């Protein structure tokens, strides 16, 4: 089977990690799985393009000069026809729109994965509404969490067209215990490393993590706090540490290329999100044996068993988060138990092999799509 994945990427984040992992696993299963990545002229970003190329994947760059670039549509359509793909699989609303328009009248199966929608402003909210309307005309729609599934069904997408597939990771990459941060940052051996690994954006709730650190100010000598990632909130989060008087306690490490070693360096992984699908960083941290403290949002309750393979706190509750960090950090036995259970749970339920198997079943079930010309209304 020949599959093309389509995305407009702003960096190497969760959806991008899912695509590369899925493509690599599909290759191992004997299928062709390529990527087409929009290169937006107004906001160019090559992180994902380069990361996928570095992993040996075939990546096509699609220059996009405007919101709807007719030339980009033609290039995409020609690529699909010339490569004779059986399935084209889009990720995020821009890719959904371009895929639907470019494949009009082509006998190709069209699939979309909805990772989530972050309705941070009115424009993004409108994009999300339009995307969910458009998804009614796809052969199959995949959601990564119960919350996303509910939004799709509320938008009028027939329940039979929506399949829930949880994200998966290459668990073997995260099975080592080779650490890098302790030596690199000269962290004392008795310090507990507490970290956030996320895109630095509003919905990730990192401001509440910083507030929790401030509340722990009388106990911070036991901990070493790190924030790994980049994003639009980076400057304001650094300013917040100054205002809270914790700038010397929090170390912003930016984007890293050695994430298995970074996760191996973290004792307690915090995911303080306000809104989520299924964050890849939590799966990677669990596979590495980290103790996870997370907000009860998105698909996380399907991954973490509270008190068994991690600890939940209410989203946006800095007080509860600080108490959880202190309680877990002061109990090495509890850390080891939670981390071990988390590692075993991810290995058994959230592997790349299981994710690829489920996506293949979607592709095969929709391998003879209806004519798109008959399915798309003339007003679209």
Describe the structure.
There is one protein chain. The chain has 16 helices and 13 strands. The chain is α/β, with parallel strands linked by helices. It has two domains: 2-168 and 353-375, 3-Layer(aba) Sandwich (Rossmann fold); 171-350, 3-Layer(aba) Sandwich (Rossmann fold). The strands form two sheets. A seven-stranded parallel beta sheet has the order 3-2-1-4-5-6-7, with helices on both faces. The chain has a six-stranded parallel beta sheet with strand order 10-9-8-11-12-13, sandwiched between helices. α4 (93-102) runs parallel beside α5 (122-134).
Summarize the structure.
The protein is of the alpha/beta class and 380 residues long. Helix content is 42%, strand content 18%.
